[in-house]
Amino acid sequence: MGTVLLVALAVAVAAVVTTGLVRAGRREAQAEEARLAEQARRQARRSLDTVWAMNDRQFEEYVAELCRRDGCTDVKRVGGAGDLGADVTGRLPDGRRLVIQCKRYARHRTVGSRDLQTFNGTARAEHRADAPVFVASCVFTKPARAFAARHGLCLIDVDLLGFWNSGTPLTSFLDLDIGRSGTNRKLHPDHD
After folding, report:
1. Residue 182 and residue 156: Cα distance in Å, rounded?
2. DSSP assignments along 5-72, one per residue
3. Which of 14, 88, 136, 174 is close enough to 103 for a disulfide, judged by CB 3.0 to 4.6 Å?
């Protein structure tokens, strides 16, 4: 009788342990599934096709998210009517004041020097920017690049945006010689 009771107790304990392990395995599988889904969502959001599909506000939020990812603090999306050229503000990891103007244009468009002149006129004077950055989902014209180089503006065009999306930190772009880098050729609307 004692042996039967001992075997029954061992079977019951084994059943409880097995049930607990199965449940833990299911929870772990669900957590992994959720992690992979989140990773896929982030990766999809980082694709440039997704960027071009965003509206202006979503693009500004996305740029703010990239800044946060790169260790910027006090990051805010402030774009809208009357923003005086500041769509995103914050502080770089070293404490410098960051002011970003965002232009989410179709891939075949360009940003000209007039937009940069307007931004330059307000970034430092109105917003006290130590690091004025202009982010565009297209390319900048040659005169725009020359203007930016003369006035110390950081330009992130579609090519650099691709690198930023892929993990290159924002601070890597701040000291680029924008007058000598990149391209100012328009992309065809169907260009990959």
Report:
1. 10
2. HHHHHHHHHHHHHHHHHHHHHHHHHHHHHHHHHHHHHHHHHHSHHHHHHS-HHHHHHHHHHHHHHTT-
3. 136
Residue pair 59/80 in contact (Cβ under 8 Å)? The answer is no
Q: Is 16 helix (H, G, I), strand (E, B) or coil?
A: helix
| Three-class secondary structure of residue 71 per DSSP | coil
Could you tell me if residue 152 is left (phi over 0), alpha (psi between -120 and 50 degrees) or otherwise beta? Answer: left
Give the residues across from 156 on adjacent strands: 135
**Residue that the structure tokens 């004692």 belong to:** 2
Note the Cα 8 to chain centre separation in Å.
59
Q: Which whole-number Å values give the CA distances from 107 to 39, 103, 180, 191, in the listed order?
A: 26, 11, 21, 8
Cα gap 124→164, rounded to integer Å: 24
Per-residue pLDDT of the chain (192 residues; tens, 9 = 90+): 778 777 777 777 777 878 878 888 888 888 888 877 677 556 645 567 888 889 999 999 999 999 999 999 999 998 776 677 799 999 999 999 999 999 998 888 999 999 999 999 899 989 999 999 999 999 999 999 999 999 999 999 988 998 999 899 999 999 876 654 555 454 445 444
